[in-house]
């Protein structure tokens, strides 16, 4: 008898729902997949709280997810929450409200556990190979960096420098293009806050950046749209982005205001602001560590949760 699983990732910016069916042979079929820009961290993340408006958006989205799961007769639900709920003074209260209103049990996971699950998701998407790679996952609340090979994780760390936090700190007026001064201040901030990453990269010497989901997905969509190619929704989760393409996209994103960014083919409205600060972080990482290639994994945390279920 097939089993139906729902995997929910309550991110700081985006809530994800993935519903899969596993048959007796362990073969999986995706039945449903969606992402909703809940912006749970908006307005409160740097104060360490979830605002009433964000709480309401989160509860409404999870109520919808519950209805979708019921329609698909889901048997097992795994829901994890990350940076915004992990660090919010009222996080526990929000989780209790979710349980009362939707019946969904949410597990708040540590940054280290988040990094571990992201790496498992990436492993499901691609052959990593014997040489170390640097995986980067840019969330709204935190950024995970993992260095690993096909054999597993060599080093991992979650840094509370996610895109929503960076927007609030360095780029508040997102209607305008970001200024060179703001970019400079943001790069200094990364330099200060990522010293442990610098030490780990020196030790393990990765040569390839693997971008996991989110912003990297959108950059791939922008690249395909610029070349009049539509991404196959059932295509490979292992994608690439040429360094020269990224540099061009980065330059363009720095120069455009929100209206012009929204007009870029392949751009998602839910990413239109965060993508700017996320790309500053990507550019800093590529330059700082002389990485010569970008690979993109369409899989991340929720697929890592699925990978663990498949192993059970």
UniProtKB/TrEMBL annotation:
Q: Which residue windows are transmembrane per the record?
A: none
InterPro entries, sorted: ATPase_NBD, GppA/Ppx_hydrolase, Ppx_GppA_N
GO MF, one annotated term: pyrophosphatase activity
Q: List residues of the Ppx/GppA phosphatase N-terminal domain.
A: 19-311
Name of the protein in question:
Ppx/GppA phosphatase N-terminal domain-containing protein
